[in-house]
Design goal:
single chain, about 300 residues, mainly beta, four-stranded antiparallel β-sheet, about 0% helix, about 45% strand
């Protein structure tokens, strides 16, 4: 049974078209990039505006913020991690790490030291990667672009590496495996190196896409769809995972009334108690007020 009913979910910022990612700044403005190449900015009151239109061919995916207020996003069209200023100036962050080309960059997360962790879903690109939904292959990777400019591969052999998140204690980076319906934990060692990927939680009822930590270590994961007979079928679900890796259903919007293919989530609002969702097939963000306090992201501290 779900913790929240669909009635408790609020539609927020109608007019945001097909945004895959969502991030909230310190003033509680909400951002996301639409599949139309527009970066949307929604005020705390829900007024939708356009920060900028990205260069032709851009397909913004996961999105975050740095401490200067720049939006850092994964661009499926440019096959790169990109940055856009509040004035709409776009620049390249990285399109490869060593010998690894970022063919399908998905989501990026900063740790407390300003190191940027980026998932690369597959060695395939957006035009050919869907085959892995029905025939999973370990072609994904996680990379780290350090604050000093040095880049390293953290792990390879990941099944459609998707959402990423750093736990509140900064002891591990978590990565969702969309074609295995699970979540990996990769320890961050004190010397800055990493442990081997281990399964933290598994057996999700649908494929996971994005996630966000609460300050108590609870993890919230979006489940946009599941695979049936090789086809993607909407799920419209959110689950909550406890610190032991046990999951439960938070929201189940079977009809897609408020959540429509929810792909990413982030905490914002007063006390970081509002959990926001991006709806890839919708025209709005969604949010629900929770008793949890979100773990502040790099730019929110």
């Amino acid at each position: 049974m779900a913790t929240y009913s669909v009635d408790q979910v609020e539609i927020f910022g109608r007019g945001v078209l097909k945004a895959e990612g969502v991030v909230i700044d310190r003033e509680n403005n909400v951002y996301g990039g639409g599949r139309n190449g527009i970066i949307y900015k929604v005020t705390p009151e829900g007024k939708v505006g356009e920060l900028c239109t990205l260069p032709a061919g851009s397909i913004p995916n996961g999105i975050t913020l740095d401490r200067e207020g720049n939006l850092v996003y994964c661009d499926l069209g440019k096959k790169a991690v990109m940055k856009v200023t509040q004035n709409g100036q776009v620049s390249l962050v990285a399109d490869r790490v060593g010998n690894l080309a970022l063919t399908l960059p998905n989501f990026a997360s900063y740790d407390a030291d300003g190191n940027l962790y980026v998932s690369n879903s597959s060695t395939r690109d957006i035009n050919t990667a869907l085959v892995e939904m029905s025939k999973p292959e370990p072609n994904g990777a996680l990379v780290c672009i350090r604050a000093n400019g040095k880049s390293e591969t953290v792990a390879t052999g990941i099944y459609l590496a998707n959402g990423t998140a750093i736990d509140p204690k900064e002891e591990a980076v978590y990565v969702l495996e969309s074609t295995r319906n699970d979540c990996l934990r990769i320890a961050i060692k004190k010397d800055g190196s990493w442990g081997k990927p281990e399964i933290f939680s598994e057996g999700f009822p649908a494929l996971p896409d994005g996630m966000a930590f609460a300050s108590d270590g609870s993890l919230f994961v979006t489940l946009p769809a599941f695979i049936r007979d090789g086809k993607m079928v909407p799920a419209h679900q959110i689950i909550q995972v406890d610190t032991k890796g046990k999951w439960s259903t938070l929201i189940d919007d079977a009809k897609g009334e408020k959540l429509f293919f929810p792909t990413n989530c982030a905490f914002g609002g007063a006390g970081l108690q509002d959990l926001y969702f991006a709806n890839l097939e919708g025209d709005h963000f969604s949010r629900v007020h929770t008793p949890f306090h979100g773990h502040p992201l790099y730019h929110q501290r």
